[in-house]
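Hi C.,

You asked whether I'd gotten around to modeling the 150-residue construct. I have! Everything is below, sequence then structure, no commentary in between.
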Amino acid sequence: MNQNYKKMKEIRTEINIKAPIEKVWKILTNFSDYPNWNPFLRWLHGNVAVGNKIAVRITPPGANGMTFKPNVLRFDKNREFRWLGHLFIPGLFDGEHIFELTDNGNGTITFVQREQFKGVFIPFFRKMLDVNTKQGFEAMNDKLKEKAEE
């Protein structure tokens, strides 16, 4: 097996939401409200702007929660929010977390939540990523849909 394959991993989830893109973006970026509805990203603190470091707490189902301090890579209103975080030092276990919103032109939007993982520790976390982390993405997507469609 290709050694680089073992050092890379992507998790991707998506959900269609029957709500205006502006409403979904507003919910997604109202970080102070995360503890009230978001089962996966329990909180996000900091000045969210490209180049800034923020603090994020994730709690995947059936796994220990983790707090990390990623750098914001993109923050495009009503379109995309992404950050890059590292476990300990860059290169061991890096995750680029991406939220994408697409207007389907029919009163719905597609919300994609994905993360691209790279690093030498990937093989040790593969099962947790495939199960717990993916379930966390799906739980957050479901709650975002529920809140936006209220």
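If it helps when you're writing up: The beta strands are 8-17, 41-45, 55-58, 66-68, 71-76, 80-86, 94-103, 109-118.

Thanks,
B.
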